């Protein structure tokens, strides 16, 4: 039975998140409904990670098994015609039967978008966190350097995070843009804890506002205490940009793939 890997782009504003839930529309349900129309059978879709309500993606990865054999263009053309306008398939390939989008992941890249104008932006309201106070972007860049590498990120996990441990590796944390306009936080790592990216951003913004010194970020990290960190940035600024894969499942090492199933942004 063929296993298909889909790369998805979606605007998450009206969804309760990736996972099927009883309280509203989900990305997973919309995709499975579209696939049922295309294939003439119900399939169960697995993803590389759960995204929260309001979170977007340009590179979410999902896979499913089907008894139907269709050309790949059927998923790019036919399926996209059956999906809501805020959800699209941007790539489709057949993969090995053992491929698992979550457990085979070597890492992910997220982008968090922030609008730093003095006035609100109607065009950015569902895709950016609007922060009106002037931000010191250079200070945030310097503070972000404290978060690079492999650490225990307990101070940046959600209180209800179920991951077995909080050791993660942040490979990249870049602060792009300029104060008074759009600012982006680009975060790349092996795996992430629940709300970790949004908590990192919320903490760096405290530095950008001048409320905390740059060295405070290192103190928060060392404390392993969520109460010491900044607030959780709102979901609408977050985008899952890319999921990285090798030729097979990665080695199970601390801070990497073992707890990738706990990743929820």
Automatic annotation (TrEMBL):
The active site is at residue 52. Keywords: Isomerase, tRNA processing. This is tRNA pseudouridine synthase A. Residues 244-265 are annotated as: Disordered. It is an enzyme of class 5 (isomerase). It catalyses: uridine(38/39/40) in tRNA = pseudouridine(38/39/40) in tRNA. It comes from the Bacteria. Residues 9-97, 143-245 form the Pseudouridine synthase I TruA alpha/beta domain. SUPFAM superfamilies: Pseudouridine synthase. CDD domains: PseudoU_synth_EcTruA (cd02570).
